[in-house]
Structure formats: C-alpha cells, structure tokens
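Marked as duplicate of an earlier ticket. Keeping the data here for the record.
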Amino acid sequence: MTSQHFILATAGHVDHGKSSLVKALTGTDPDRLPEEKARGITIDLGFAHLELESSSARYDVGIVDVPGHEDFVKNMVAGVGSIDLALFVVAADDGWMPQTEEHLQILSYLNVTHAVVALTKIDLAADEAAAIAAICEKLQGTVFAQAPIVPTSVVNGRGISELKQALCAALAQTPPPRDLGKPRLPVDRVFVLRGIGTVITGTLTGGTLSAGQAVVLQPTGKETKVRTVQSHNREVKTSTPGTRTAANVPDVGAATDPDGVQRGQVITLLELGKPCPTLDVALEKSARLIGGKTSAERPLKDGARVRVHLGSACLTARVCLLDAKHLAPGERALAQLRFDEPVFAFAGDRFIVRDWSEQATLAGGLILDPDAGRKNFRTEARRAFLQQRLAAPSDVKAFVATALVRTGAARGVTLLLKSRFSAAEISAAAKDLVARAQAVAAGDWLADAAWWKGVLQKAAALIDAEHKAHPERVGLPVQRLRSALEKELPAPELATPLLAELGRGGFLQIGTAIKRATHRPSLPPNLQAAGARLRAALSAKPAEPPSKKELAPDALSQQALRFLKDTGEVIELSDEVVLLADSFARMRDAIVKHIRDRGPATVSDLRQTLGTTRRIMMPLVERLDKDGVTVRQGDLRSLRNQT
C-alpha cells in the first residue's frame, strides 16, 4: 500500500495544548527552542511526523505546530500557507478564545477547507456536552461547520486513538497535493551543519525536488544546486509535494549572512519566471468581524500600509483598492498590492493581510495576476480582466483567455508559468480555445483571436498604403513592416508566424518585400515616358544595348530603370550593363544550345554566336557561371550539368 503525503498544521489559542497533543500523537516534542521550554509556550514553528493507516489507505503526515500567542501570529501564518488539513485545538476548560477566532479566520482566508477539532483538556471540563456545543456554535457558517470534534486528554490518554481515526477519515476526504511540475519550497527554517553547510526546510508544493537539481532562490534570483534532500529526517533522492522537505544548499549563506537565505524566500526553478513588485488580487474581510470590538474590525483603507503574509514570508506593502475607499467586514474588493521589494508568487496563491503594527489580522486574499503593472490599474480593461479571473479562480481556460487578452499573444511554453495550473492543463485549455476560435495557434505562440485579427488588419493596411503611395514598387519591405509592428507584438519573433499567416491570406513575399498577390507594379504617370524610352532603347539593340549611363542620364530615367529591375523586366549584369529579361533569356538559351551542339566554347566563340561585343559577353557568361548554367574550365565554358 503506497503512502499518501499530506501536511497538517495545528491552530488554536495559546496554552490550549497544541504541542502536547502533537507529542501525544507522534512521540515528538515540537517545541525545540530553549525559550519555549523555559516559558512553556510555543514561540516559533515546530515540526513532527505522523504515520497513519486505515483499512484502505496509509498516510504520511508532516505536522507543523504553530504558536498560539498573539505576539507570534506572524510565525503561525508562516507555517499554514501550504497545508492540507487543520488540527483545530480548543481547550475544554477555556473554550473559544481570541486567538482561536483569529486562527479560524486565517485558515478561512487561506482556503483551508478540511479540519478536525481536538477538544483538549477534557479531563478538566465541567460539562463536556456544553463544551462541544459551544464549539459547534462558533463553527456555524464556516467551512469547518461539519468538522468532527474529538474530546482528548494528554493526561489520561483519552481520545488519542479516536483522534487518529478522525484524522484518517478527514484525510480520506482531502485531495492529495498535486504535482504540477512547478516545485516551490517556501523557506521556514534555516540552519548550518558543520561539514554540510546551509540547510533550509519548508513544505514542498507543486512539484518534486531532487538531489543534484539546479534551483534558484527567489526573489533574490541566486542560482544554486541542491546537494542532498531529506524528508522527515530520512535522506531521499526526490521529495514529493505534500512533504516536509530539507534541502542542503551548501553554496548559499545562512540567515546570519546579509546575502544568505532567509525565511520567506522560495527555492524553485529558474524557468518558472521572475519576481514582481506588484500583485493584482481579490481581497475579503471576514463577516465574523461585524460587531466585533477588536482593531481587526476597522475598515481596511485604500492606500493603507500593511504586512502581507505570503507563503512563509512577511512582506511590507501598500493596498490600492480598485473601486472603493475602504474594505469593511463582510465585503470583497479588487485591489493591488504594491510591495517595497519584488515578490515571487503564483496566480491562485492565497495570502493574509495584517496591520502595520502586527497586532491584528485585517483581511485575506487571492492572487489574480502575479505580474501586474501599476500604470493601467484603474482602467476598464483591467477591471474586466480581474473580474473574469475572480469569477472562475479555478478555471484554467479563463486564465489562459485573460492572459492572451492582456498580452495579445504568448509563447506556449511560457503561458501561465506562474500559476497553479500544470503544463498539461494549460495546453488542453489552449487547444480548446483554438477549437472555439477564441485563440489562434501561431507557430509555437498562442494569440488572442481578436487581437491577432487586428494585427493582421494593420499589417494589410500598411502593405496597401505602400502600394498606393508607390505603385511602382513590388511591395513593402519586410523589415519596414516588422519595425512598424514592433510596438504591437509582444516579441519580435512573432513576426515570423504573422508573415506566414499573411501568406495564407492573399499576400506574397517577393525577395525582401511583401505584397498583395493581386498587386501588379506599375510606373507612376511621371515615370511612364522615361520607362517607354528605356524599353525602346533596350529593344532596339537587344544584344548590344546602351550602357546604363547612356540609358539613364537623369533622375527620372534612373527611377524608371530601378522600377524595371525591381519588377524583373530588366536584368542587371553589372554596374554598366542591363538587358531586357526576354533578351537575357534568348541569349542564355543560345549559349546553352551552342555548347550542347558543339562542346565547350571560348568567350570569343560565344560572342560570335550572339553577335555581341566583349563588353556584354563577359558579364553575361559570369552571370551564367553564378547562376549555375555554365562552368569555367580554363578558357572554355561547359554546361554545369555535363561536367
């Protein structure tokens, strides 16, 4: 039977017995700091490992024990950002307390939907039924309303076995952590071991992490390599999502080093994008604060400076509400978080907002865009973009469609990299959008259909304008078209599939120019007379035409001659010699016939056959050599395909 991996975190008020309960369940005391032993309370995160087994499944559970004291809520939030199940702890003798409520709101903001309630210190309860009823009342209207409540006592061992059974039952209903191919290890602990170097720990999400793997530390961008990996004190080749993971990164400094790894940073892959100082989000403020008497009840004002807890990080930011002046209890709003430093986050991540003095939890939220810009935040287009994502936060097609609307186009392999969707899900959504004509596959790019149509229309308009302004030219130089569309395209290489699409839509690329297939170059009125003179002069002596200087002594004649060359009506043999294309073809055919009938020939032999001069003959045979018609062998010319 293969074990399933999950992360469980405790939650609840200080001195309600969370750490003692973890020790009773696992045999491990999660309080590891001397200060914790001395004060008898949990100050920082503690960790333990629990193996559970039912008749049908085996569970490998990493436990994060969090502090319950109000002074250490920031440490509590650092430990619950990536959990699957909450072990909600309420003491029977104390009942529901302020930190019980705050922890409940934090878990709700983070969208933790599965929990088991441990009613601890049941041996001290005056009325067990009343204590259970009081908890049920507090949980009404929350996602934990149906959570099992298990009376326990670490003094006499009551309920420990029942609690394990309840945890098994809850885990059976909990979706296992997903492997998206996008590993992230939010750092919650850093230490140095002699002879080994820096070790970081965290809860691994989104993908696997292996020994020897190249990784990057975000948001600093420092690249490094994982030497070894451990999970629950056992060395493993690969750690999987939903496990407590320790990674040895010996070439990275520890937290005491100003440039070393710190709690709140993230070990991930370089190809998963870069940090950004601005996030577009949806904020909510719990309705349970209505009528409360705490500082958390106060409205969250537009422009407020706050502390944002994201993953294991505590970050400083300013809140910019999209449509409101403040966010009151029970309300939701679209907003932008403007951080003091870049942050690494994914669309779909959840976070907690606390006040600047870190005394109260104010709100929670969902990241809708991890690469937001500040310039166009309050535009109607931006509002529509965010509302569409908020309406379907788990719909990969909605996120792909909005990503394309925002950027116009994206390379398939980079689309929604910073999201909680896998590559397979994104690819399937892209194919569906193409099938519905909402998107267009353009090489290895995917484009929004309406945007793509608009760019094609602009390109067609530019080509048509060139035809109108210069009917004598073959078309618009491709490089000029690329330059003109530079601001329209998210990347220059997208011009290649754009040109291919134009080719399928009635346009032709001729040499370095692109034109409508129906366009036939014609001399403008002011050059028509000069063109007629040139044609007449070249036709009069097809094998011995005048030199270019004689043909085009003035600017108008030179423009007309350029047109005839560009359209292929005239062939330029050298700086001084041009021939009508028809004349060139006849002379070439005559040379081929002469050599085929009589064998290799000298230039003099060929000149006499054509009845022309050496002035014409030398550039002509050199052109035929270049074109691969003839080949020179000493003083003789042979046909190339006969050599």
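See parent ticket for discussion. The first helix runs from residue 18 to 26.
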